[in-house]
Write a structure and sequence with these properties.
Elements: E1 4-5, H1 6-22, H2 24-34, H3 39-56, H4 62-76, H5 81-96, E2 101-102, H6 104-122, H7 132-147, H8 152-168, H9 193-210
Antiparallel strand pairs: 1-2
Helix pairs in contact: 1-3, 1-9, 2-3, 2-9, 3-4, 4-5, 5-6, 6-7, 7-8, 7-9, 8-9
Bound molecules: adenosine-5'-diphosphate and magnesium ion.
Amino acid sequence: MTDATAAQLSDWVVRFGEAVQEHRAELTELDSVIGDADHGANMSRGMAAVLARIEASPIADVGELFKTVGMTLVSTVGGASGPLYGTFFLRFGTSAGAAVTLDTAALAAALRAGLDGVVARGKAAPGDKTMIDALDPAVLAWEAAVADGADLAAAAAAGSAAADAGRDATIPLVARKGRASYLGERSAGHLDPGATSTALLVGALRDALAAPS
Ligand code: ADP
Ligand code: MG
């Protein structure tokens, strides 16, 4: 597989928006158990604004595209997830810069920059039962695939599988960040909503890269 094109990266954003819409009720249901039942509404409001913005005037420059996505999420989502996902996309865009295409290593670096941004903003560590528990393993799997000389499709598949496994591994965890942490031990036994939406994010990237550019 060749490098990721701007069209594929834009398609990633669209696919994530569609996935969030499709899973809106599920994300809200998960957040109703250990949070305040708004994660589906937060993510779908933010991504609907993003898709409306992209449809109104498509953005060819990768750095500019992700800057717009990030700014839109920060400004339209009131919950914790808006600034966190917004930071992910802003940092991703800064790392990608004005590149026209991204190879497997450049994409890994941009994902790493996004992850680092979320950690800097939210101060969560792996095991705190947050979106980091899906994003961190995804980036590590992606980097390991790059070190093995894997192509884009293989790296993306490994990243998505790791995000799914990380999402599922949040079930027994006790939340130490965000609203779910107010529940203490009672947060154990449930999937984390943010880790669930992050698995959708990485799955959408895998699917966008597998589609013809
Ligand atoms: P809010 O908690 O403000 O209602 P959402 O319901 O939209 O916002 O998002 C909740 C999700 O945000 C959680 O499931 C968790 O994955 C993620 N989250 C919360 N706080 C943090 C944090 N400090 N760092 C990383 N992720 C976090
Ligand atoms: Mg919430």
